[in-house]
TrEMBL record:
It comes from Helianthus annuus (Common sunflower). Residues 43-208 form the Ty3 transposon capsid-like protein domain. Residues 220-241 are annotated as: Disordered. InterPro entries: RTL1-rel, Ty3_capsid. PANTHER family: LDOC1 RELATED (PTHR15503), RNA-DIRECTED DNA POLYMERASE HOMOLOG (PTHR15503:SF45). This is Retrotransposon gag domain-containing protein. Pfam families: Ty3_capsid. It comes from the Eukaryota. Residues 226-241 have a biased composition (Low complexity).
Amino acid sequence: MKIMSGRVNMTQAQLTALINEQVTAALAAAQAGGQPAQQPVCTFKNFMDCRPSTFSGTEGAVGLLHWFEKLESVFEMCECPEARRVKYATSTLEGIALTWWNAQVQILGLAAANATPWNDLKELIKREYCTRDDIHKLEVELYHLKMTGSEIEAYTKRSNELAILCPTMVDPPIKRIELYLKGLASEIQSHVTSANLDNIQDIQRLAHRLTDQAVEQNKLPKRIGATTSAATPTTPSDNKR
């Protein structure tokens, strides 16, 4: 949805979602004897006010991941229930991605398509817009991923992105841990490994702290244009894959 010259321009999918929502609210009010229906936790307007990203199908695997992450952030911000997530999320599709979704709606019917669980939709879209060749390249990158110098933030961020896009490479969780430890700088790798932690978030926090210490002790070079990483690294939860 774009605002131009004082007008609000909606795609057909966005307009349909808004109309359906208003009709549902009106019917509920009528059934309640004319009393206004209780305001839902998350309306379509609430959702759009949070400025969700769009996805057109041409952004590649990482662009798709960023679309997922932005949508899930918006879902949290506007307290969007599971039952509305697919309907709202698909209103942000554009171009060939919107054409693909419209084809799914024709096959399944609108109600059934909108009732698709959010995680199931994510898998469907990944299969459509992340080719086997794309995934293979990402799997190779994840396997060979290495921390460069003291750039622990960049290493952790890319490791987390690839773990989401290559779920078979990190299941069971011990495989995720082994890959992350394997790519750490040698100056901290043995110390992190010997801690025998079994949670990837704890391992990443320790790796960040030890990197800071190694920089202070001149065992690792200073980061290029970055401060120390005392803050906890952000790690996507497993249920967002």
